[in-house]
Prior knowledge:
- By secondary structure, the protein is α/β, with parallel strands linked by helices.
- The protein has a single domain (4-249), classed as TIM Barrel, CATH 3.20.20.70.
- Helices cover 44% and strands 16% of the residues.
- An eight-stranded parallel β-barrel has the order 1-2-3-4-5-6-7-8, surrounded by six helices.
- Strand 1 (4-9), helix 1 (16-32) and strand 2 form a beta-alpha-beta unit.
- Helix 1 (16-32) packs parallel to helix 11 (241-249).
- The model has no long low-confidence stretch (mean pLDDT 97).
- Bound molecules: 2-phosphoglycolic acid.
- The site of 2-phosphoglycolic acid has 13 residues, from strand 8.
Amino acid sequence: MRRKLIAGNWKMNGLKADSLALAQAVFEKSANQTNKSFDVLICPPMNVLGMVAALPHNDVLIGSQDVAETVKPNGAFTGDVSAAMVKDLGASCAIVGHSERRQYHHETDAVVCQKAENAIAAGLIAVICVGETLAEREAGQALDVVQHQIAESVPANATAQNTVIAYEPVWAIGTGKVPTTDDVAQIHASIRTKLAEKLGADVAENMRILYGGSVKPENAKELLSVANVDGALIGGASLKADSFWAIAEAVM
Ligand code: PGA
């Protein structure tokens, strides 16, 4: 039985005061939730990651939005933050290969795979993002693109414990558009099939596959009840504790 994961990606949002208040509000909602049947992850930007992780956060997981590509835990890599450093700040997860990184920083599948390996080697859970662009979907290539990304971005040593997949169609991110539940079901099933080919049936069966892209309180229940959807990666709606938690409550 895969436990659902509700993950917030704050992106490049939040100065200290706002971020700490948001984190605190999420921690309180989590602490007040009895019999929580899902895991919660928040991924603040690097400027506040350490401060957020230093707050008492009970079982809420804290993650970064990226890690450095180099395998070295430190060294002459100006501007980079290694997976070991992220772990040292108190985080337990790292998003890698978000489409905004792939698009604006030209991260290839090979780079994403290396980052995922670095995260895993540092003892973090890698949340590996995949997803097709609008042009790819319109050309009927969505399945192929996503399967290729899974084949190339997921490290060979990925397990259900150290890796989570997030399917985020690029055209659904921040746009208010969401795929049909049939489309989500089809892609998620194909991701699990590809994971089974790559990592074996056991690992694939237990690995969580999140959906991301315009998840809101209004559509959360429908999306979270699609077969093979094991949680959500939430951008915009994670910036308010109330809307983030309303999505989490849709799990129950
Ligand atoms: P969104 O972003 O929820 O604002 O669409 C999702 C994401 O990019 O992770």
